[in-house]
Design a protein that fits this description.
Helix 3 packs parallel to helix 6 and helix 18 crosses helix 19 (594-603). Strand 7, helix 17 and strand 8 (554-558) form a beta-alpha-beta unit. The chain is α/β, with parallel strands linked by helices. 59% of the residues lie in helices and 9% in strands. The chain has a six-stranded mixed beta sheet with strand order 6-7-8-3-9-10, with helices on both faces. A four-stranded antiparallel beta sheet has the order 2-1-4-5, with helices on one face. The chain contains 19 helices and ten strands. The protein is elongated, with a radius of gyration of 35 Å. The protein has helices at 3-6, 35-44, 47-79, 85-133, 137-142, 145-185, 189-211, 214-236, 238-243, 247-299, 305-346, 407-414, 437-441, 458-463, 471-480, 506-520, 536-550, 585-591, 594-603; strands at residues 368-375, 384-391, 396-400, 422-427, 430-431, 444-447, 524-528, 554-558, 570-575, 578-583.
Length: 619
C-alpha cells in the first residue's frame, strides 16, 4: 500500500496533527493548575467528610470556651456568701458535660481526620504518579528519580499538613477568639476592645514577619529534595561506589550536601524561633496588663472571682492561640509553596498526548512505515534526516551502523517515546499519534541490552509482560525462553531477584526479558543489543531463545556484532541519520559496501594478542 493511498494529514513541527490539536486529551488536569486548585480538588473529593471534620473541631473548640465559663460559674457558686447548692450543681453539671462533649468531639475529629486525610494522601500520590508516568523519556533523563519520588510522597504529606493546620491549629483559635470576645463583652467593654486590638495586631505582625522568612523555608525544602535525590542516586549505584573504592569519597560528597541542607534547616528553624520569642514577649506584656486590669475590676467590685479566673484562662488561651495561629499560617504558606513547586516540576504539560478518541488497531500485523521523518533530541541538531522506510509485516530487519547513527532513535520513535520533529511514523497503516500510547506499546515487545527487572519474584517479573496471564502461560513463556536456570534458584519462580535483578547473571536477566516478551506476544519485536554484553555460552542460549521469539513477528534488531544478524531478512545500514544500504545480508556482502567492510573487520581482521614473555626477576 502506497503512502499516498493512506491520505493521512501532515504533522506539525511539534509532531501533532493540525486537525487533532483540539481533540487531544488535555496535557494537565485542572487540579494541576496551581496549589490552590490542587488543594481544593482533593477537599472537594470528600466534601462530607471534610465538612464533618471541620464541624467537629469547631464544636470541640466552642465546648472548650464553654468549659472556661463553666469553671467561672463553679467558682462563683462556691465563693458567694451564702451557699447555693442548686447553682453549684448546675455549674458542675455544665462543666462536666462540656468536658465530656469536648473530649468526644476531639476524638471523633481525630478518627475522621485519620480516615479522610490519609485516603486523600493515597489519591494524591496515585494521581501524581499517573501524571508523572505520562511524561516523555526526555523528562526523566533531565530529572533525578529519587528527587521525583520524594516530591510525590512529600506533596501528599504537605496536603495533610495544610488540612491539619486549617482544622486543628487555625479554626480553634478563631473560635476561642470570638467566644472570648463575647464573654469579655459581658464583663468590660474596654477590656474587650483592648484585647481584640492587641491580639489582631500581634497575629498580623507575626504573620507578616513570618512571611518575610519564606526564602529560608523554600531553600530548606529545595535542599531537602535535592539531598534525598542524591542519596537515592548513590544507593542505586552502590556497585560502582564499591568497585571504584568510592565509599569515603561519596560519604564526603554526601556530607557536603547534608551540611548545606542542615545549614538551610537551621536558618529556617531559627527564623521561626525569633517569631516565638516575639510572641513570648507579647504574651508576658498582655497577660500582665490583663491580669492587673482584672484585679482592679475585682477590687472595685465590678467582677467576681469567677470572672477573674475566666479572664485569666481565656487571656492565656487567646495569646497562645494567636501564636499557634500565626505559626500555622506561616507553616501553611511553606507547605503551599512546596505544593506549588512540586506542581511546577511534576505537573508540567505532557510532551506526548493521547488523542481524545484513539483509534484501535483493526489488525495486529506489525507493519512499520516512516514517511519523511526527521528528528533530533534538540531540533537544531537532528539525528534522523528525512527518513523514508517501509517494513512489511513479519519481516526481520537488522539495524547496523556506528554509535550515534540513529538506530536506537529509530526504534524509540516507533514506540513513540519521543515525538518526531517532522514527518510521520505509522504502525499498521495508522500514525502512531492516532493510538493511545499504551495501546501502541501494547503491540510492541522490547528486549533491551540491559533488561529492567523489579525487586520482585521471577514469576512477577515474567508476568509483567501480561499481568492477566495464568501461571501455566508464565511457565510456557519461560520454557520458550530457555529459562532452565529457574529450577536451580533457591526459591524457584518465587525467588526475589533483587533490585534491577542484581541476584541474577546477565544471561539469566536477558532470558527473563525474553520470556516476558514471549508472554506479551506482540506483533512487533525490538531487540536492542540483546546479546552484546553476554559471554559466548550465555549468548548461545539467548540466541536460541530469540530464534523462537522472532518467528512470525516484525523484528527490528540493533546489533554491533554482525554475526547475530545472519538470520535477518533485511539489513539497514545507517550513517548520520540516513539509510545508506538496504538489502539482505548476502546481498550486502556481495555489494562490497559499508556492510561488507564492517563484516570483514569483525571476521577477518581480528587482532590476536600474543603471549607476553615472563617478567624477569628484579635482583
Amino acid at each position: 500500500m502506497s503512502l499516498a493511498a493512506l491520505d493521512l494529514p501532515r504533522l506539525q513541527v511539534v509532531g501533532r496533527y493540525d486537525d487533532m490539536d483540539a481533540s487531544t486529551v488535555s496535557s494537565s488536569p485542572a487540579w494541576l493548575g496551581g496549589a490552590g486548585a490542587f488543594i481544593a480538588h482533593y477537599l472537594r473529593s470528600r466534601p462530607v467528610q471534610f465538612l464533618a471534620l471541620l464541624a467537629l473541631v469547631l464544636g470541640g473548640s466552642a465546648c472548650a470556651v464553654g468549659v472556661q465559663y463553666g469553671m467561672k460559674l463553679m467558682i462563683d457558686a462556691m465563693t458567694t456568701g451564702a451557699r447555693h447548692p442548686q447553682a453549684l450543681r448546675v455549674a458542675l453539671t455544665l462543666f462536666i458535660s462540656l468536658v465530656a462533649v469536648e473530649a468526644v468531639m476531639w476524638r471523633l475529629s481525630g478518627w475522621l481526620g485519620a480516615r479522610t486525610t490519609i485516603k486523600a494522601g493515597v489519591d494524591i500520590r496515585l494521581d501524581l504518579f499517573r501524571h508523572l508516568a505520562g511524561h516523555s523519556m526526555r523528562y526523566f533523563q533531565d530529572q533525578m528519580g529519587g528527587a521525583l519520588g520524594h516530591r510525590v510522597t512529600a506533596t501528599a504529606g504537605a496536603f495533610g499538613s495544610i488540612v491539619n493546620r486549617m482544622v486543628w491549629d487555625i479554626a480553634p483559635p478563631f473560635v476561642s477568639f470570638l467566644g472570648a470576645l463575647l464573654l469579655f463583652a459581658t464583663l468590660d467593654g474596654g477590656m474587650t476592645l483592648a484585647l481584640a486590638g492587641f491580639v489582631g495586631i500581634m497575629t498580623a505582625g507575626l504573620v507578616a514577619f513570618g512571611l518575610r522568612g519564606r526564602h529560608h523555608h523554600r531553600a530548606y525544602a529545595r535542599h531537602s529534595s535535592e539531598t534525598g535525590g542524591e542519596l537515592m542516586d548513590v544507593i542505586g549505584n552502590m556497585l560502582a561506589v564499591k568497585t571504584f573504592s568510592a565509599r569515603e569519597r561519596e560519604r564526603a560528597r554526601l556530607g557536603d550536601a547534608f551540611g548545606e541542607e542542615a545549614r538551610a534547616h537551621t536558618r529556617s528553624w531559627m527564623y521561626n524561633e525569633k517569631i516565638r520569642v516575639a510572641n513570648d514577649v507579647a504574651l508576658v506584656i498582655m497577660a500582665a496588663a490583663t491580669l492587673v486590669w482584672a484585679a482592679h475590676l475585682w477590687r472595685i467590685g465590678q467582677i467576681t472571682p469567677g470572672d477573674v479566673v475566666l479572664i485569666s484562662s481565656l487571656t492565656f488561651r487567646l495569646l497562645h492561640g494567636s501564636r499557634d495561629l500565626a505559626m500555622s499560617l506561616i507553616d501553611m504558606g511553606q507547605q503551599y509553596s512546596f505544593v506549588g513547586e512540586t506542581l511546577r516540576l511534576v505537573g508540567q504539560p505532557h510532551a506526548l498526548l493521547d488523542p481524545a478518541a484513539p483509534r484501535r488497531p483493526t489488525t495486529r500485523e506489525g507493519a512499520i512505515t516512516l514517511d519523511k521523518v526527521s528528528f533530533g533530541y534538540r531540533p537544531e541538531t537532528p539525528i534522523l534526516h528525512n527518513l523514508n522506510l517501509h517494513i512489511p509485516p513479519g519481516q526481520r530487519v537488522g539495524l547496523v551502523g556506528a554509535s550515534g547513527a540513529g538506530k536506537s532513535t529509530l526504534t524509540q520513535l516507533v514506540q513513540r517515546l519521543y515525538e518526531v520533529n517532522s514527518g510521520q511514523v505509522l504502525v499498521d497503516g495508522q500514525p502512531v499519534q492516532a493510538y493511545a500510547q499504551d495501546e501502541l506499546r501494547g503491540c510492541i515487545a522490547v528486549v533491551p541490552q540491559e533488561v529492567s527487572l523489579f525487586h520482585r519474584s521471577v514469576m512477577e517479573n515474567i508476568r509483567f509482560g501480561r499481568p492477566e496471564a495464568s501461571d501455566a502461560d508464565v511457565f510456557a513463556a519461560a520454557r520458550a525462553a530457555h529459562c532452565d536456570f529457574i529450577a536451580d534458584l533457591y526459591d524457584g519462580y518465587d525467588t526475589v531477584v533483587g533490585e534491577r535483578g542484581a541476584k541474577l547473571s546477565g544471561g539469566q536477566r536477558q532470558r527473563i526479558g525474553i520470556a516476558r516478551a514471549f508472554l506479551k506476544n506482540a506483533p512487533i519485536l525490538i531487540l536492542d543489543e540483546a546479546t552484546s554484553a553476554l559471554d559466548a555460552e550465555s549468548e548461545a542460549a539467548v540466541q536460541l531463545a530469540l530464534g523462537g521469539l522472532m518467528e512470525g513477528r516484525t523484528v527490528l534488531a540493533i546489533a554491533h556484532r554482525l554475526s547475530t544478524l545472519t538470520d535477518m531478512d533485511r539489513i539497514l545500514v545507517l550513517s548520520d541519520g540516513e539509510v545508506i544500504e538496504d538489502g539482505s545480508p548476502f546481498e550486502l556482502q556481495r555489494r562490497g559496501g559499508a556492510f561488507a567492510r564492517l563484516w570483514r573487520l569483525q571476521t577477518e581482521n581480528r587482532i590476536v594478542a600474543l603471549p607476553r614473555p615472563p617478567l624477569k626477576a628484579v635482583s
